[in-house]
TrEMBL record:
Keywords: Lyase, Metal-binding. InterPro entries: CbiX-like (IPR002762), Sirohydro_Cobaltochel/CbiX (IPR050963). SUPFAM superfamilies: Chelatase. CDD domains: CbiX_SirB_N. The keyword Lyase applies. The keyword Metal-binding applies. This is Sirohydrochlorin chelatase. It comes from Saccharospirillum mangrovi.
Length: 122
């Protein structure tokens, strides 16, 4: 079973965490049929955490999980914290395949998105 885990930083503001849940719901609709399950997790300040989010997908039967960090740039969280948490779950579940995607600014279409948005405001 293929699954996607979208990861955000997490916020003390419940409305920000709810906004992320809404974003994930829109992504789920866009990806209908491409993944068997889609979950969300937070690095800190909100639940579920990354390990719990991964475990939830494993409990649902996931054998492959794509982890998408919804972080703009490659700071400490993207370069160290998230990979370490993912690696811990991978080591505990050697039969599981986990692919950690790049942060948003590293994705090829992101620059195009920014250019379109900038020109829309002209």
């Amino acid at each position: 079973m293929n699954a996607l885990l979208m990861v955000a930083h997490g916020s003390r503001l419940a409305s920000s965490n709810e906004e992320f849940a809404d974003l994930a719901a829109r992504v789920r609709e866009k990806l209908a049929g491409k993944y068997d399950a889609l979950g969300t997790a937070f690095l800190e300040l909100a639940e579920p955490g990354i390990a719990s989010g991964l475990q939830s997908l494993i409990d649902q039967g996931a054998t492959r999980i794509d982890v998408m960090p919804c972080f703009l740039l490659a700071g400490t969280h993207v370069r160290h914290d998230i990979p370490e948490l993912v690696q811990q779950v991978q080591q505990a579940n050697p039969a599981l395949t986990i692919k950690l995607h790049e942060h948003l600014a590293a994705e090829p279409g992101f620059v195009d998105y920014l250019a379109v948005q900038a020109l829309a405001g002209r």
